[in-house]
Design a protein that fits this description.
Blueprint (H helix, E strand, L loop, with lengths): L1 H16 L3 H5 L2 H15 L3 H15 L3 H13 L3 H14 L4 H13 L3 H14 L6 H11 L3 H12 L6 H13 L3 H14 L7 H9 L4 H14 L4 H13 L3 H14 L7 H10 L3 H14 L4 H13 L3 H14 L4 H13 L3 H14 L4 H13 L3 H14 L3 H20 L3 H13 L5 H14 L2 H14 L4 H13 L23 H35 L3 H14 L4 H13 L3 H14 L4 H13 L3 H14 L7 H12 L3 H14 L3 H14 L2
Helix pairs in contact: 1-5, 1-7, 3-4, 4-5, 5-6, 6-7, 7-8, 8-9, 9-10, 10-11, 11-12, 12-13, 13-14, 13-15, 14-15, 15-16, 16-17, 17-18, 18-19, 19-20, 20-21, 21-22, 22-23, 23-24, 24-25, 25-26, 25-27, 26-27, 27-28, 28-29, 30-31, 31-32, 32-33, 33-34, 34-35, 34-36, 35-36, 36-37, 37-38
Length: 688
């Protein structure tokens, strides 16, 4: 208010030194009284000044200069009504005096009559637009009326001329702050702060402006100073809490929230951010409590429900999460993110039908959303809706050839293939398996399916090949091994074929008892088996010659020809494995050792070779298991070499005590003195 009085005093003082047309009319007596009034005013004897001026008016009559001086002094002693009454007389004499309107505006402003003040200042502006200082008066009135937009305009016009004026810049910054134009507010506060940081007093507002301009680090610097100067400035504490939160300094943020809520416990507007912080700190129980308090205070704000749902989702309480997301959607129907979250919750709780329903809602608005389509395909896959799932996977793979999509596509193809086998759609099943294999499917389940198809079709060779591929890919899958073993056994199960003719009466009249019938069938089977065995022995003999000549490829070919005739020959299977091992094809060697074990689970030679092959591949755990099986079957196997190999496996695993134990057992079973000496040295090294 003091600023307005100074404006009036300025005009009053100017009246002491300014002459106009009225000077010519003022006689010497009135002029003397006027000069005496000015002297009394200078000496702060304002009553004497008023008395002299009123005497001068009584002598000189209406005079603009006398009225102006008199009105100014009345303003100075806060007799605003008298001052206004006299200023209006001046206007009657000189209606184009802009400064009189400024003085009137100042009085109205001091009286809190801001609209009348604005009217007077604008009148002055119309008369004398070059007087730029008037924009400061106008800006102040708009500021008091909280018309911050017009205040900003006026202050900026003023500062174009008076850029060093601090009060107007402070009010401009405050106006920007009130308009939530935090970027411009922070710019103005920076100018004020940089000009004279020692007397700067707007730390809180500057800090909050910086915070809302994404300058959290600078905001913290200012807000900490604000709190230091006024520990009870809870707006600054709250700003600090949010700035720390933005920078991930959760502990510091938590402390500031505690200060605010301790002193302002009913400040519910802050609870949403506070709850978000608690959730980020994994204080989920406290976060839920704060979200519930916020929702109670602001039941129509969808953010409270959505954020609460997010915590429940994190806790895997999907029912509660869905419940709150649905309320959030009621409050904000067009928010697709919440529908995505609900779909995800249903998916996680394995309610795939509802998940698909929400995925479809999202896809209505975002038909090309890659991730939503993929999730929908996963849900359909889980629902065994393979056709639609496969269709979506194929679309997505054309867009982006990601491994995850390809793997799921292959899994769906193979799963559908097995369903088609059950439906006797062998052609469709085979197409699915072959496409999956072509796409790089590396699980034995596709080959297992192909084996079943070939078995149904009676193509035993192809069935056997695919069983073998399945077992090679998944050696631990007992289903494949067991079914393959059953398949091999079934090839040699007794079968009696009774030929029928179109004329039964012509059949020989020979009657066989049940016993005779069995003997006859056994005789036929035995005869056929002997033929097959004899043929296979020819291939084996040639294979042995090739092996001796180190022609391992030819040996393998002959051994495999023998196996087509007698698939359950464990020895020949072992020979194939050893031949592959000599060709350094350890993977195929392991495959055939495993087949030999399927045919004969107690085949120590196969177990031993399998253990050595695993060791060559550095698969020490499986090597250990195989060699332990050898010892279980025959503790004296091959003069104790199983112990030696097992000891090496333990040694390579760093299990020194187990290695020493098995090296000592080897010594007990072996008589090779040179080797025993080497082993004893090994033991000493391991026991150091």
């Amino acid at each position: 208010m003091k600023k307005r009085i100074l404006t009036a005093l300025l005009i009053s003082a100017m009246a002491c030194f300014t002459t106009n047309s009225s000077d010519a009319l003022m006689n010497s007596e009135a002029n003397l009284l006027y000069q005496q009034a000015c002297s009394a005013e200078h000496q702060q004897d304002l009553k004497e000044a008023i008395s002299k001026l009123e005497q001068a008016v009584s002598i000189a009559g209406p005079d603009a200069m006398l009225y102006t001086k008199l009105a100014g002094i009345y303003s100075e002693i806060d007799e605003y009504d008298k001052a206004l009454e006299i200023y209006k007389k001046v206007i009657d004499i000189n209606p184009d005096d802009a400064f009189i309107y400024i003085s009137i505006g100042s009085i109205y402003e001091n009286q809190g009559k801001y609209k009348q003040a604005l009217e007077s200042y604008n009148k002055a502006l119309d008369i004398f637009p070059e007087y730029r200082y008037n924009y400061y008066n106008i800006g102040n009135v708009y500021y008091q009326l909280r018309d911050y937009k017009n205040a900003v305009e006026a202050y900026n016009l003023f500062l174009e001329t008076y850029s060093a004026h601090t009060d107007s810049r402070e009010n401009l910054a405050s106006s920007y702050f009130a308009l939530k134009d935090y970027n411009n507010a922070s710019k103005q506060y920076k100018i004020i702060y940089d000009k004279n940081p020692d007397i700067f007093k707007h730390y809180s507002e500057y800090g909050l402006s910086l915070l809302n301009s994404d300058s959290a680090e600078l905001a913290i610097e200012m807000l900490e100073k604000a709190v230091e100067r006024d520990p009870e400035n809870y707006s600054a504490h709250l700003g600090l809490a949010q700035a720390y939160q933005d920078l991930g300094k959760n502990s510091e943020s938590y402390d500031q929230y505690q200060v605010v809520l301790e002193h302002v416990p009913n400040l519910n507007t802050v609870r949403l951010d506070y709850a978000n912080l608690l959730a980020d700190m994994d204080k989920n129980t406290e976060a839920i409590e704060q979200y519930i308090l916020y929702i109670k205070a602001f039941p129509d704000d969808f953010n409270g429900y959505a954020n609460l749902a997010s915590v429940y989702k994190e806790l895997k309480n999907y029912d509660k999460a869905i419940e709150n997301y649905e309320i959030a959607i009621e409050k904000s129907p067009n928010n697709l993110d919440y529908k995505k979250d609900i779909a995800n919750c249903y998916h996680n709780k394995k309610d795939y039908s509802n998940a698909v329903a929400y995925y479809d809602q999202v896809l209505l608005s975002e038909p090309d959303n890659y991730n939503i389509k993929f999730n929908k395909a996963l849900a359909l896959h889980a629902l065994k809706n393979y056709d639609e799932a496969i269709s979506i996977y194929q679309q997505l793979y054309k867009i982006k050839s990601e491994k995850t999509v390809k793997d799921n596509l292959n899994n769906a193809l193979v799963s559908r293939g097995h369903v088609r086998i059950e439906e006797n759609n062998l052609e469709g099943a085979a197409a699915d398996f072959k496409l999956a294999i072509k796409n790089g499917y590396d699980d034995g389940y596709a080959y297992y399916g192909m084996a079943k198809i070939y078995r149904i079709q009676g193509n035993n060779t192809k069935a056997s090949e695919n069983y073998e591929k399945a077992i090679a890919l998944n050696p631990d899958k007992t289903l494949y091994s067991a079914e393959y073993s059953e398949f091999i056994s079934s090839l040699y199960a007794p079968k009696v074929n009774v030929e029928k003719t179109e004329n039964p009466s012509e059949l020989p009249s020979i009657s066989l008892s049940l016993e005779d019938d069995k003997k006859a069938a056994d005789s036929v089977i035995k005869e056929k088996s002997q033929v097959l065995i004899k043929q296979s022995e020819t291939f084996i003999s040639q294979g042995d010659k090739d092996y001796k000549n180190q022609n391992y490829d030819a040996a393998i070919k002959n051994y495999q020809s023998a196996l087509q005739l007698v698939p359950d020959d464990a020895l020949t299977l072992l020979k194939v494995g050893i031949s592959y091992n000599n060709l350094s094809d350890t993977t195929r060697a392991i495959n055939y050792y495993q087949k030999a074990i399927i045919v004969n689970p107690d085949y120590t030679d196969a177990w031993f070779n399998l253990g050595l092959a695993y060791a060559n591949e550095n698969n020490l755990i499986e090597s250990q298991k195989s060699l332990e099986k050898v010892i279980e079957l025959d503790s004296d196997y091959n003069y104790g070499y199983a112990y030696y190999a097992l000891a090496m496996a333990f040694e390579n695993q760093g299990k020194k005590s187990d290695a020493v134990k098995n090296y000592k057992l080897f010594i007990k079973h072996n008589s090779d003195k040179e080797l025993i000496n080497d082993v004893q040295n090994k033991i000493k090294e391991l026991q150091k």
